[in-house]
Protein 1
Amino acid sequence: DPSGSCVMCKLTSLLYTSAIHFILYSSIHFIHYSVYISYSTLLYISYSALHFILYSAIHFILYSAIHFILYSAIHFILCYTFPTLLYISYSTLLYISYSTLLYISYSTLQFISYSTLVYTVRLKC
């Protein structure tokens, strides 16, 4: 029967076309999802690496800045401020003690000389 064989040809052709369509469709979807998964994985790895690098850089910069500021402040206090304050305190103390001692000596000498003068004048009179 020629029409029956034509139906079989059409069915076989339809089957081959469906199989080829299924294989192509599956292959394209497989490639699409593979590329999507690879792209997503690469994007995630890049993002994680970038995040780690930025976090490490910011952490290092902040740690270095804080360390530098603290070191500079301590160095400045110990090397400049503390000796300056010590020198000012020492100079002030030395000046006060020297002035006090000089004043006491001068006052004592003045008192002794005045008392001696008064005593001498009284004796003569």
Protein 2
Amino acid sequence: MAKRNTDVVENVDYKEDQEYEYKMAREYNWNVKSKASKGYEENFFFLFREGGVYYNELETRVRLTKRRLKAGQQISNSKLVVKHRPLNKQELKMQRYRDRNLEPLAEEEDMSEEEEEEEETDKKDRSRSKSR
């Protein structure tokens, strides 16, 4: 962690020639539930801002539980050693692909102009047929 602190002070993400060591503090088990899972319960995220309430459905739920040691089991002294290197072309391509999948789809405005015009025309046609 001392190397990481030095990087923060020097305002760099990492140094390419350095190895960074991380000691494992805890282990977790995870349980993932999505809409396709049996027993899925809908969850929503609410945001109260500037006199309004906004919400979104959380479609995936991940529950982390601390992994308990079994009787007679020793604490793990595992370490993760990271040495940064530039990504190759294939890795860069895959990284961009994953980044795009994380971003929400560009949803169209409520309705396109064409759809709005069609809807207005339909309303006019219906009101004409009612008045006859």
Protein 3
Amino acid sequence: HKSRLWKVYGCIECGREIFPGEKRWLCGNCIEEYSYCVSCGSSLGLVRRHLPHQMYLEEIDWEIDPSPIEQSGSTSQAMMKAFDLYSSRALLGVRKRRSDK
């Protein structure tokens, strides 16, 4: 789910979004962080070392480990586990309306 992302990555060649659990090519030397998907990286020959760029594969991590939610036996258990996993997030819960001051 996209709410579990730290940040969004996209391939600068084809424009496809690269999701958590997928790998991306990126340069270990450049200040700018740009990404290539595995398919474009392979077709562009990024496996080879291009000086001054040292390209390497990196897997995009999840913000949280989703396995406890996925292993739930019911929707209500999944919801409770999700609330537990996200309890530290500032915007989790009910927001006050102006009339609730």
Protein 4
Amino acid sequence: MQLRETLVNQRTEIEVLQSRIHRSEDAIFAEFCRNLGVENIREYEEKHLKELQRRAERSLEISALKAKLENQLEYEKSRNLRSRLEQLEGDIREHSEALEQVREEEAQLKERVQGIRQEIAKLEKDRAGKKEAFDDKEVRVVEFKKRQQTLAGEIGDLQKQITYHEGQVEQLHARRHALYMDAKLEGISIPFTHGSLEDVSEADSQDNEDSMEVEDSSQEMQEVYEREENLHVDFSGVPRKLRAMSATEQKAQHQQFLQDINKRQLELEKMDPNMKAAAHFKNVQARFKKTAEACSAARQDALTADRAFKEVAEKRSRLFMDAFDRISGAIDHVYKELTASADHPGGTAYLSVDNHDEPYLGGVKFTAMPANKRFRDMEQLSGGEKTVAALALLLSVQRYKPSPFCVLDEIDAALDKANVARVTRYLKQHCDQLQFIVISLNNRFFEHSDSLIGIMVDVDEQCSKPLTLDLSAFPE
């Protein structure tokens, strides 16, 4: 059985090679055949050989006739029949001329055949050189596409870092704005080398939620932050001693300043100020504090929600790219195994994403190049080539998230004998890692299976019954 399969495979390969040779000859001699008015070079060679054979046969006939006439001439000479001899000599001359003409035509045809063969050899050499150059360029195209995919991933990582740092800058802007507003409301004087606290203001907003839009509010805050960028605090009045303090010393000094402020506030309270003004100020201060706390809480909630959203988006992108990278890394190896043959290591397959920033929002492009074929879109592949490509993608996904078994239903519908043999070989090599359940009527799958399960009709009971056969006990 194994010898029979080997012979079938060899015959299939011979037929494929013969078909490739015929296609190459048709492509090379297309213009030559059109000039001669023949369909292909094989038809020309067949007609030419028949013509040579016919002329050779004609030459043999003339030679035989000449010999016959010479014999008759000798015979007639022996009988002294002069008139008959002259007639025969005339026939000999006529046939000799015809024979010489045939030989000249034969020499011309041989010369033309030699020239054609030399032209064929030259064209074959040119075709081999051009094919080698094309294969090199095709390999470079695949390498450039893989490099492009790697660079796109690096760009995505850099964009994530930029987004993170922009968030940090946004938080610092918010803290600076809050300090400026507190100083302005409490009447604290801050020296500036450029600008003043009069340039500090809140973003215009309304309490009506129906008229509030997040995008407009964000734009207004950006304008406020841009105005505050032009404010330059004058630190020349800060004593050098304070500027030279460490962080711990600055914190202790800050506590000392707060104690001094509280002490001065107590002294002011003992001076019996206008109680109504103080009460009014406290009410305003309480309202401002409440509003500031609500604003700060809302801003903090927005930042928290934004961080949570970015974490979820980053996790989503990380999980997607992890699955994509592992499947993309395995699909080329699987596709090569499914398309490899004795004279070729197999085709090439790879995946690429449409949206590199948020890959889960775009599509994934699957490109497959069968062995000895040029690059084409997936839609232009044959049914068998599409089936092999789909199997490679399915088995690559299985490697990322393995399942206990895999059901393959009628996968050989569009496959020829050679591709069926490659698929069965792959399934047999990997059946120890994954159990394959194949639904098929192809004998090739039956021969390489561990067990068979069939369905029959039980006429007596009018129902279906399964039949099982364990093939593990039989040698292949």
